[in-house]
Amino acid sequence: MGRSRKRPRAPKSNKLPPITEEGSVVRRKEPRPKSPEKQETLPDISQLSLQPRVDPELLALRRENNQLKAERDCRICRDHEANRLVMPCGHLALCFRCSPAVTRCVCCNGPIRGIMTIFRT
Q: Which residues, in sequence order, are CB contacts of 51 under 8 Å at separation 6+?
């Protein structure tokens, strides 16, 4: 019951391509080129731009996105995300690697009394 029935296949054509006396296959004739008045004119290649067209609004959004991402980076190394909060000023400006070496806040130059780890979700 669960078996599927095989569909019968259409019979294969026994036609072989025509062969010349030398033994090569006869190819179909190439289509004739269109007359000059019927040929499509192609645009001048020098007028084409290789640069993709980008919407100015999209560019502005990309710049803003990159700026927001850069604000989350460590102010010292710029390699890691800032996840250490400087106390008492409250600047979120250091990463886990740079925070032990700093004695003053890199944003306001205030004294550091403590460092708190921030977990972003």
A: none
Residue 115 belongs to domain spanning: 73-121
Number of domains in the chain: 1
* Contact present, 105 and 91 (Cβ < 8 Å): yes
Q: List pLDDT tens digits, range 50-67.
A: 667 778 899 899 999 999
Question: Where residue 103 falls among pLDDT bands split at 50, 70, 90?
Answer: very high
pTM greater than 0.85: no
- Is there a domain that residue 8 lies in? no
Structural domain contains residue 18: no
